[in-house]
C-alpha cells in the first residue's frame, strides 16, 4: 500500500477562534483598539493634507511656468527723427508667419487724421523686393530703383467725411521671411538658422515704407503708433539697432524665432522618446541576463511605440513636413532604429528560449515515482458516473452506511481491456477526502479513504 496524506481536522482551531471571539472585551483591549483607530485616522488625515498641499503646489507651479511662456504683442517703438510736419500714423497687425513658405502677413491700419488741417493726399510706397511675388503687392520686374506705384493712397478729405460707401483705410502686405544660415554672418544681424534647425531656427524680415504728398511729391512722415498680434508658434522681436525712421520713411527689422513653448514641447518629446528607447534596451538586456517570464505585452509595446513616434513627429507644431530637421537626427531616427533592433533581438532571444525548453522536455524521461493525490469528495464523489483520473471513471453508489466507489472503467478509450483490475472502495459516512493513485501510472490499483471528524 502507498502512504496516504491526511487532512488535519480544523475543528479545534475554529472552536478556539469562536471561544475567543465570544469572550467579553476587557478594558485594556478597548483602550488599545481606540488608540490604534485614532492613529489610523491621524495617518489618513495626514495623507489627505499632504496630497492636498502637493496638488495645490503642482497647480500653482505649472500655471506660473506656463504663464511666463505666453507671448505679448510685438515691440514696435521706433521714434520718428527729423520728420516733416505732415505725418500719418499706422497700426500694424501681425497676422501669420509661415516658415515653410517664408512669408509674413501684416495688415496696416491708418489712424484718423486731424481734420482741421488743410486737404492732404498722401501716397504710401513699399519696397516691392521685400514682398512676395504673385501676392498682388509686388512688381513684375525687380529693380533697385525707388518704387513709383503706390500701394495705398490716403485722401484726408474723404477720410474725414467718410460714409458707409467709402472703403475702410486698411491694406495688407505679404513680406518675405529670410533665413541666412548658409551665408556669412552680416554685421548688425544676429545669427540665422534655416528650417532645418527646427525648433531652433531663426529668421528675420523687414518692412520698408515711405510717404509722399500726391501733388508735390514732398516727403511725409510715417509714425508706427502701435502693433499688435502674436503669430502662433513664433516669437517676433523688433531689432532696434537696424530699425530707423526719418524723413525718408521707416525701415523696421524684426527677428523671428520659435516660441519658448514650442521649444519646450519638442525638447520634452525628444527626452521622452529617449527614455522609452533606454527602457527597451534594459528589457532586452534583462532577457539575456535573467531567465524571467516574458509576457506578450513586451512584444506589442515596441510595435505600438514605433507608430507612436512617427505620429508624434507629424504633429509637432510648425515642423517641416519632410524628413531632415535637427529633431529628426537627434530624436526620431535613432529612436526608431534602436527600438527596431531591440525588438528583433528580444524576439530572437525568446524564440531560442522556447525551442531550448521544448527540447529539454522532450529529452526528459518519464517519472517512475508513485504519487498520491488528496481530492475532496466534492470533486470526486457525485451522482452518476464521474471520472476518477485522466483515463478511468468511477461509479458512485449510496448506502446507509456510506458510499461505495467502484472502478468499472479504468482503461482509456480505445483499449479493449482495463489496464488494472477492477477495485471497489467503501467510503465511511462523513469522509470528506479520499486518496487515490491514477490507474494509468504503471498499473497501480490502490484507492484508499481517509476518515476525518464528522462536522
From TrEMBL:
Protein name, as recorded: Transmembrane protein
Membrane-spanning ranges: 48-71, 260-282, 294-312, 332-352
Biased composition (Low complexity): 17-31
Domain of life: Eukaryota
Composition skew (Polar residues), residue ranges: 396-409, 423-435
The entry's keywords: Membrane, Transmembrane, Transmembrane helix
Organism ancestry: Eukaryota, Fungi, Dikarya, Basidiomycota, Agaricomycotina
Region ranges (Disordered): 1-31, 361-455
Amino acid at each position: 500500500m502507498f502512504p496516504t496524506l491526511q487532512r488535519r481536522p480544523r475543528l479545534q482551531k475554529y472552536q478556539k477562534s469562536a471561544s475567543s471571539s465570544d469572550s467579553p472585551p476587557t478594558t485594556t483591549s478597548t483602550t488599545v483598539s481606540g488608540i490604534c483607530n485614532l492613529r489610523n485616522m491621524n495617518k489618513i488625515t495626514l495623507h489627505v493634507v499632504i496630497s492636498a498641499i502637493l496638488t495645490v503646489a503642482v497647480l500653482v507651479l505649472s500655471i506660473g511656468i506656463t504663464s511666463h511662456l505666453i507671448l505679448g504683442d510685438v515691440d514696435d517703438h521706433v521714434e520718428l527723427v527729423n520728420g516733416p510736419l505732415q505725418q500719418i500714423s499706422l497700426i500694424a497687425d501681425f497676422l501669420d508667419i509661415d516658415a515653410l513658405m517664408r512669408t509674413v502677413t501684416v495688415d496696416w491700419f491708418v489712424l484718423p487724421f486731424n481734420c482741421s488741417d488743410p486737404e492732404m493726399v498722401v501716397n504710401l510706397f513699399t519696397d516691392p523686393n521685400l514682398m512676395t511675388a504673385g501676392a498682388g503687392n509686388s512688381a513684375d520686374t525687380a529693380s533697385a530703383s525707388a518704387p513709383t506705384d503706390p500701394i495705398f493712397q490716403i485722401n484726408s478729405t474723404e477720410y474725414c467725411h467718410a460714409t458707409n460707401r467709402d472703403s475702410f483705410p486698411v491694406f495688407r502686405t505679404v513680406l518675405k521671411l529670410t533665413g541666412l544660415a548658409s551665408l556669412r554672418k552680416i554685421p548688425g544681424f544676429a545669427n540665422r538658422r534655416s528650417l532645418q534647425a527646427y525648433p531652433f531656427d531663426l529668421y528675420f524680415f523687414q518692412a520698408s515704407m515711405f510717404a509722399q504728398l500726391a501733388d508735390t511729391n514732398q516727403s511725409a512722415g510715417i509714425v508706427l503708433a502701435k502693433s499688435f498680434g502674436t503669430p502662433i508658434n513664433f516669437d517676433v522681436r523688433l531689432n532696434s539697432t537696424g530699425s530707423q525712421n526719418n524723413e525718408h520713411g521707416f525701415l523696421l527689422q524684426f527677428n523671428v524665432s520659435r516660441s519658448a513653448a514650442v521649444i519646450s514641447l519638442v525638447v520634452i518629446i525628444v527626452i521622452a522618446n529617449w527614455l522609452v528607447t533606454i527602457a527597451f534596451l534594459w528589457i532586452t538586456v534583462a532577457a539575456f541576463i535573467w531567465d524571467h517570464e516574458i509576457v506578450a505585452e513586451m512584444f506589442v509595446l515596441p510595435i505600438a511605440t514605433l507608430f507612436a513616434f512617427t505620429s508624434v513627429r507629424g504633429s509637432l507644431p510648425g515642423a517641416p513636413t519632410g524628413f531632415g530637421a535637427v529633431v529628426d537626427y537627434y530624436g526620431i531616427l535613432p529612436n526608431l532604429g534602436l527600438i527596431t533592433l531591440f525588438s528583433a533581438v528580444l524576439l530572437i532571444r525568446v524564440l531560442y528560449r522556447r525551442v531550448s525548453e521544448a527540447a529539454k522536455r522532450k529529452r526528459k524521461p518519464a517519472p517512475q515515482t508513485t504519487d498520491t493525490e488528496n481530492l475532496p469528495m466534492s470533486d470526486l464523489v457525485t451522482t452518476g458516473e464521474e471520472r476518477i483520473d485522466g483515463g478511468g471513471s468511477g461509479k458512485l453508489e449510496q448506502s446507509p452506511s456510506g458510499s461505495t466507489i467502484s472502478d468499472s472503467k479504468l482503461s482509456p478509450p480505445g483499449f479493449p481491456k482495463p489496464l488494472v483490475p477492477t477495485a471497489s472502495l467503501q467510503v465511511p459516512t462523513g469522509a470528506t477526502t479520499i486518496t487515490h493513485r491514477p490507474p494509468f501510472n504503471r498499473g497501480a490499483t490502490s484507492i484508499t479513504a481517509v476518515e476525518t471528524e464528522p462536522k
